[in-house]
């Protein structure tokens, strides 16, 4: 427990923990860019969690072994992670007035990595608590770090499992902060976080089963991978991901750890130029591949793609200024033959743009890989109001038809951002499972219809959402007009009568 903390701590709700953490951000807000202060806040939260769990388990062993410190210490060596004394939050808090507090935190992070080789190697390499450009000159930096440590020493912020009731609470708090940081950072924040409801919808649609190998080649902070793992409903799952941004890669590694996915293999690098998830010299293949790649990425690697040693672009080379199909082709090439499936979130231009994209789209349809096209509402994503779509691909399909779903009108409107409700997600998933035509919502489309439309996937071409116009009867309309004219004449006569009684000359 932290220095000011009482020996017993009442249980704190998820909402209160979230609020405490969000208020702690005020220490850095306004002086440090949101894309940077998230690293400091989330890293300290991670250290606080490790420290509190370590302390909790140590106390439990002391109770079990009747105060025998030596036996408790031996048992602690078998824990899923190690926290050296000078790396613990309590130690850092005690040193909060030190002139070199930033350096002490950096040392603690380095030694945490060393004590947990494999699980935490390189996680903190891009985070510097002694950075003058980010945190200010020495006096200002020390003040900010002291205040930040005091924020996290809040007696209510006790992250021990015996207090919060398990790992989900802190994992959820981490996800909460990541989503708030993404909203604060706007468009740039959207690059490392997929809105929770969209990730949940994609996870339900792909529905990975126990034993599945799941990959997100543009995994960001890992929210989509976590949703996929939860959808499996057991620990019998293998998680893989790759992320190009160094600090976001670190967040993803910590996020996996906090959600109990210690064995997740997350790589740092450019998926298109340098895929790191390999089996020998070949791309690793998966049961499920899911991603929310950056929309229409410019300079994605077009110049090198023609010589791609993995042969991912034999269906065509995506345009230099739009990398959407580069990610799609990579994902398809990493699905397992016979049953592998992929789900990708894309901007609507992917559905109908011509040129090489149109030819790639045609090849994917002719190979019977495209399973469904789902239109989402606009303004779901951080930093952009444009609507997106989900493309589902599946190997070993038993039909040549493609299901189109227009879910663009089903959402809960928000002030700054729309959201998908439970009923909206359930409707999409149910329609996909039925795989049948549903008036003004879903349409099962044949290959001949796709050919007739030159392989465009523009959803309004197939799903007519217009309300049917009612048939107008001229005879009934004339009868209604005659009736209304009669009523109007009667009202006029009554008004004239009232006016004459008042001595008003109606004829004038």
From TrEMBL:
One of its GO terms (biological process) is methylation. GO terms for molecular function: site-specific DNA-methyltransferase (adenine-specific) activity. It comes from the Bacteria. InterPro entries: D12N6_MeTrfase_N, DNA_Adenine_Mtase, DNA_methylase_A-5, DNA_methylase_N6_adenine_CS, Restrct_endonuc_T1M, SAM-dependent_MTases_sf, T1MK-like_N_sf. Its EC number is 2.1.1.72. It catalyses: a 2'-deoxyadenosine in DNA + S-adenosyl-L-methionine = an N(6)-methyl-2'-deoxyadenosine in DNA + S-adenosyl-L-homocysteine + H(+). Residues 167-469 form the DNA methylase adenine-specific domain. Pfam families: HsdM_N (PF12161), N6_Mtase (PF02384). Residues 474-501 form a coiled coil. Belongs to the N(4)/N(6)-methyltransferase family. This is site-specific DNA-methyltransferase (adenine-specific). It comes from Hymenobacter lucidus.
């Amino acid at each position: 427990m932290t220095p000011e903390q009482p020996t017993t701590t009442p249980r704190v709700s998820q909402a209160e923990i979230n609020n405490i953490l969000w208020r702690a951000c005020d220490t850095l807000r306004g002086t440090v860019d949101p894309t940077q202060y998230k690293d400091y806040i989330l890293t300290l939260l991670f250290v606080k969690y490790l420290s509190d769990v370590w302390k909790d388990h140590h106390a439990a062993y002391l109770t079990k072994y009747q105060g025998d410190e030596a036996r408790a210490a031996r048992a602690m060596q078998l824990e899923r992670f190690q926290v050296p004394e000078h790396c613990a939050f309590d130690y850092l808090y005690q040193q909060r007035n030190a002139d070199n507090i930033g350096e002490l935190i950096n040392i603690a992070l380095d030694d945490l990595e060393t004590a947990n080789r494999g699980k935490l190697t390189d996680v903190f390499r891009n985070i510097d608590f002694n950075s003058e450009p980010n945190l200010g000159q020495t006096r200002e930096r020390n003040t900010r770090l002291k205040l930040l440590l005091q924020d996290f020493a809040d007696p209510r912020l006790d992250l021990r499992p015996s207090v919060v009731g398990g790992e989900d609470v802190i994992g959820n708090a981490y996800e909460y902060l990541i989503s708030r940081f993404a909203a604060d950072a706007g468009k740039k924040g959207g690059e490392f976080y997929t809105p929770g409801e969209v990730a949940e919808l994609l996870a339900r649609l792909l529905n990975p089963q126990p034993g599945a190998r799941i990959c997100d080649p543009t995994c960001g902070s890992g929210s989509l991978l976590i949703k996929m793992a939860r959808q499996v409903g057991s620990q019998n799952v293998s998680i893989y991901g790759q992320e190009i941004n160094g600090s976001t890669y670190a967040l993803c590694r910590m996020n996996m750890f906090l959600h109990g996915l210690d064995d997740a293999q997350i790589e740092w690098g450019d998926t298109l130029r340098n895929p790191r998830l390999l089996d020998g010299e070949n791309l690793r293949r998966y049961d499920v591949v899911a991603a929310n790649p950056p929309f229409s990425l410019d300079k994605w690697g077009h110049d090198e793609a023609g010589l791609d040693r993995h042969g991912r672009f034999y269906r065509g080379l995506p345009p230099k200024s739009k990398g959407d199909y580069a990610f799609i082709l990579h994902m398809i090439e990493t699905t397992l033959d016979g049953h592998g499936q992929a789900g990708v979130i894309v901007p609507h231009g992917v559905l109908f743009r011509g040129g090489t994209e149109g030819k790639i789209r045609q090849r994917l349809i002719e190979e019977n890989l495209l399973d469904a096209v789902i239109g989402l509402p606009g303004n779901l994503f951080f930093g952009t109001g444009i609507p997106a779509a989900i493309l589902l691909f599946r190997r070993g399909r038993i039909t040549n038809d493609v299901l189109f779903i227009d879910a663009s009108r089903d959402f809960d409107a928000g002030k700054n951002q729309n959201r998908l409700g439970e009923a909206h997600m359930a409707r999409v998933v149910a329609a996909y499972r039925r795989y049948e035509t549903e008036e003004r919502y879903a349409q099962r489309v044949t290959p001949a219809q796709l050919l007739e439309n030159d392989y465009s996937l523009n959803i309004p071409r197939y799903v007519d959402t217009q309300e049917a116009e009612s048939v107008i009867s001229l005879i009934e309309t004339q009868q209604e007009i005659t009736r209304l004219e009669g009523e109007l004449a009667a009202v006029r006569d009554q008004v004239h009568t009232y006016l004459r009684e008042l001595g008003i000359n109606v004829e004038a």
